[in-house]
User: What shape does this take?
Amino acid sequence: MWITAKCKSSLDAPTIVCNRTIKGRNATINNNNLKFLGFLGSLSVVNREVVVVDSGDTAWVLTSSAILLLMTVPGLALFFGGLVRKKNVLSTLMQSFIAAGAITIQWMVIGYTLAFGPDVHGIIGDLSWFMLNGVSFDTPNPDYGATVPHQAFMIFQMMFAIITPPLVTGAVVERLKFSTYLVFILVWTTIVYDPVAHWAWGVTGDHKGWMNGMGLLDFAGGTVVEMSCGLSALAAAFVIGRRRGYPHEPMMPHNVTMAVTGAGLLWVGWFGFNAGSAIGAGGGRATAAFVDTHIAAAAGSMLWLFAEWWYRGKPTILGAASGAVAGLVAITPACGFVVTGGALAIGLVAGAGCYSAVVAKGKLGYDDTLDTFGVHGVGGILGILLTGVFAVKAIGGTDGLINGNAGQSFIQIKAALATAAYCFVATFVILKVLDKTMGLRVDEDEEEQGLDLVLHGETGYQM
Assistant: This one.
């Protein structure tokens, strides 16, 4: 831990004079517990804010950021790559890998300042932090993390932005042009992801993003990540249309082992996703989020497994993996607000709800290739709504419906409706414009041959 201060200093002052309590890791700075710093030289702190950067909290946020990157590369890449046909495995892997590069640059240049920069009327951040100007590597921004450097918070949030676009395009793999994919993820992140992130999490002193300001509970991205990618994926499936031959030709996953390996990495990575959102290791909230995350994943996995067993006659490992992801999606907004019983209930509801949505897709006939809407869209909606039901004041400072606060449920519903409408409509418009200017799909012959060879000149398997 080290301490910095905006203060008055004096060569004549033999001790530190400070009697203020500051935000941080249960820290109280006063004359008695800071006298030991006298050997550093003469310093006087007079009624000014002291900022404490905690090395443990910083290590946790940076570690969570690294774990989060593993969710995308290789976790999501393997999960999605195993679910497609072998002629499209590399093109699917590439979507996740390229997002890590392209969105990193977007986030550094403009994405972070739009999402978290100084608030403009609750809608968007301004350009004060363009190119990370003023985003310090060693000093916190107390609006976002009082005990970690601002850049640590920035890169943690970058990992959220990286994983979301390839989730969207999971709905339209096996037919989307790579050149269009590159342009789409940059435009979509700027127009859809960044504003929604500001609505839910943006804060500048007393000024907040409009959903944050009305009291939305979204701990780790139920609206920002899960609903935004799910509803955008549904729009993409409608605009781009079905794969050639769907649903009459069999389009089974080519490598279930790869997919389940990816799902396992997602499960582990989600601990960084959710528990890391405490932006610190102390105080118990990171622990609560970690435990809730695991319980919900287990509950979702078991519910999906038994639902599939009952409905189709046989349980599958892919079903168990999909159920775990559904539970993880739904607990994402709730993990910092509910107790373990609430996490169990959310996981069970998510397993049932997302399984039903995936089954319904086959009957409705739209081609959401990798079930982004069925799992992330439906799971995100359920998670946001159930957070308003099961929230407990002792965990996150606000009670939900079961503890007598019906108003919180109305806030969650309002935020869910706004997020769903904006993400669907904005994505629909973006894709229509790209279709007119660049084209969205490869042609039928290229689709039949496979995107790996046609778009990238390589194949995943030499056989």
Residues 171 and 371 are 6 Å apart (CA to CA).
